[in-house]
Structures are given as C-alpha cells and as structure tokens.
Amino acid sequence: MIVRMGLLTRKPGSSIEDFRSHWRDVHGPLAARLPGLRRYHQNHVVDSRQLAIDHARGTWSIDGISELWFDSIDDMHRAISSDAYREVAQDHVRFVGNTGLITAEQNVVVPLDAAAGPLVKRMSILTRKRGLTSEQFKSEWWGFHADAVKKFPNLMGYTQNFVTDRSAGLGKPASDEELPIDGMVEMWFRSVADIEAAFRSSAANVSQTHALSFIEEITTFLVETHEVV
Fold first, then answer.
1. Which residues of the chain carry a pLDDT beneath 70?
2. What is the pLDDT of residue 81?
3. Which of 18, 83, 164, 214 has the maximal Cβ count within 10 Å?
4. CB-CB contact of 201 with 209 (8 Å)
5. Which residues have a Cβ under 8 Å from the Cβ of 69 and sit 6 or more positions away?
6. What predicted TM-score, i.e. pTM, was given to this entire model?
7. Which residues pair with 158 in a beta bridge?
8. Nearest-CA neighbor of 149 among 182, 188, 120, 109?
9. DSSP string covering the chain
C-alpha cells in the first residue's frame, strides 16, 4: 500500500477556521469518492513548535497534511485521472493556496494501537543530509534509526513515510530542490508531556545523535486527525 500526502496552506486572506471547516465538511466528502481509495485522513496543524528537539528546522509553514491510501501506484493514478478527481481539483483552489504533493512508501515501525484511546500525533518533515542519495537516506532511516526510535518510552505508534515522488500544485512534477522533503514521520503519544519525556530519554540521545549524520532538517508539527474514510 502507498500513501499520497498533500502539504497544504490555506488560501491567502482566509482564516484558519474557514480553511478547516471547508476541508473537513466540503472537500473531505468529495475526496472520499475517489475510486480505489482505501483510507483518507486529514491532519489539521494545531502547533508548529519545534517541540522537544533542537535539530535544524526547515522553513515549512503549513496548515494541514492530507493522507490518501491506495493499494498501488496504478490505483492512485487511476483515481487522479477520474471524473471524481476533477471535482476535487476544482474545489481545491477554492480554499487552498500553496500545495506540495508527495507519494510515499510506508514502514510501520510501531503499529498504532487503535484501542489506546485519545492520543497526541506529531508529524515531522525530513530533508536528507546534503551529499547523501535518497537510497542512502532510506537505508539509515529504515535501519538503525528505526530500531533506535522503537526504544523510546511512552511511544504509542511510529510510522516512516519514504518519499518516492514529488509534485508542486496538483500535477506539476517537482525536483528535490523545489520540494525538499525526503521523509514524513508520524508518531503518537498519550500527551505532550510524554513527547517531551521520550525525547529526554537515553534512547532519544542515541537516535538524535544518529539523525545528525543523515538528516539536514527536521520540521515538526502537532496535528489533530480527522478520519474521513
């Protein structure tokens, strides 16, 4: 299964409240009709602090991150070539400004326990170290780093999303330089206090020291997830 993610900013002049309500109540039901769509989540950004880490932060300023899952790349391409997608694209420009789109392979390191109750979700945009290839970045991230983060205390879920394709807007291919994102992290904890405690742990010391060797920038956000499908 692959995931298509949108990095969304609200249309200039619109309020965050208008953006959130339109995305949830109008756009969500339209996108839910895409053929072959397995799941669709909206992650509404509620906190843009560089919480609990001191790694260099990127210049990202976003209001939401969409996640749409498909069984395959072919299924995704069929969905975005469909009549249903035309309606989605037409509505998109009514409430969204700058948009970056990525396609990613997922590595579920710590499965999320659906019975865990309300959780705090943190998403992080990763840019690989200058001089590293995409495959070298993936090897470090999905190898040693995944094992190190798995040992964090209080960690309720951890998924790595490795970027395989990028586009700007709703269809224009983008280069690494135009959309400098190589990975998207999803982590779940019971509370902000648990996030802070986890990143003060000995396991975090190991993982964050290793991160300096292969990650140029980490840009973190806390999000509230609306599960459309």
1. none
2. 96
3. 214
4. no
5. 1, 2, 3, 4, 37, 38, 39, 40
6. 0.97
7. 110, 187
8. 109
9. -EEEEEEEEEPTT--HHHHHHHIIIIIHHHHTT-TT--EEEEEEEEE-S-TT--SPP-----SEEEEEEESSHHHHHHHTTSHHHHHHHHHHHHHEEEEEEEEEEEEEEE---TTS-S-EEEEEEEEEPTT--HHHHHHHIIIIIHHHHTT-TT--EEEEEEEEEEEETTTEE--TTTS---EEEEEEES-HHHHHHHTTSHHHHHHHHHHHHHEEEEEEEEEEEEE--
For residue 114, CA distances in Å to 23, 45, 131, 188 come to 24, 21, 39, 11
> CA-CA distance, 11 to 98, in Å (whole number)?
8
- Residue 79 in tokens: 């969905």
Q: Pull the structure tokens for residue 11.
A: 């249309």
One-letter amino acid of 226: H
Tokens of 120: 């705090």
Residue appearing with tokens 């392979």? 105
Which amino acid would we find at residue 48? S
